[in-house]
């Protein structure tokens, strides 16, 4: 049986043995992930793309140091995060580092917004472009600490352990940040849905 | 034991991830059966996650992949000329 992991391991072995061109194939399934990781960190599309290219090149150059004990995707994400952090440090001198050190116990309101009519919002409402845009904005405006975890876990769909590993933080810290990020987004988006969705109910067609 | 709404909210993220133990899950589910507010909060949070994972929400810049592979091709070509870094 050939699983994704064994195919990948095979690809990596062949690349290291000299079939370099196969690296294109190895990286293709993860292009999106690398870009989104860097978008989460850089918050700027052009810079994220530039950093994503750099991270991919770096992963090629260091492929020999990849050990099969981590998943390739996690290893690659770590490289992307490091590339992003390196650039931020350069851009903002050392200011950014202190943000990463922030304590989790900070006060804040992490209570979700109550609503009663959401369940009546048809799933088609999720097809709306404005909602996507509102979500993109809300994610971009999350505090850095929470956005990074949220993107890895809920956008790239790494699991909790992989997220912790890629970011170099503990599983419990991932859980706390993820919870807060999700609640913050729920809070941000609920008023938006409440005011726009019910009024439009019934107008959503199936066509895309 | 009856759960309060606030208690359910505290565990909502872990509940979505299926990371709460069986006892707590059962308590949360019993609460959800009769609590409209918590059910709506849970659904809304879930929907946000569905939307987040949807490829159309966070799109790649046009031409991103082409540019990436062109850059990579150049790197592979250059790597032929100089010894590989460790």
Describe the 3D structure.
The complex is a heterodimer of chains A (208) and B (86). Chain A is mainly α and 208 residues long. Chain A has two domains: 4-98, Rna Polymerase Sigma Factor, Chain: A (Orthogonal Bundle), CATH 1.10.1740.10; 118-200, Arc Repressor Mutant, subunit A, CATH 1.10.10.10. Chain A has ten helices and no strands. Chain A has helices spanning 4-16, 23-27, 31-42, 45-61, 72-92, 95-101, 129-140, 144-155, 160-167, 171-200. The model of chain A is unreliable at 195-208 (pLDDT under 50). Chain B has one domain. The model of chain B has no long low-confidence stretch (mean pLDDT 88).
Strand content of chain A: under 5%
* Name of the CATH first level of the largest domain in chain A: Mainly Alpha
Number of domains of chain B: 1
How far the N terminus sits from the C terminus of chain B, by CA atoms, comes to 59 Å
Reported CATH architecture of the largest domain in chain A:
Orthogonal Bundle
Fourth CATH level, the homologous superfamily of the largest domain in chain A: RNA polymerase sigma factor, region 2, helix turn helix motif
Q: Segments of chain A where pLDDT lies below 50 for 5+ residues?
A: 195-208
Number of strands of chain B: 0
Largest interface: A-B, 54 and 45 residues
Structural class of chain B: mainly alpha
Say what the CATH topology of the largest domain in chain A is: Rna Polymerase Sigma Factor, Chain: A
Oligomer state of the chains in this structure:
heterodimer
Average pLDDT score of chain B = 88
Q: Give the tally of β-strands of chain A.
A: 0
Number of helical regions of chain B? 5
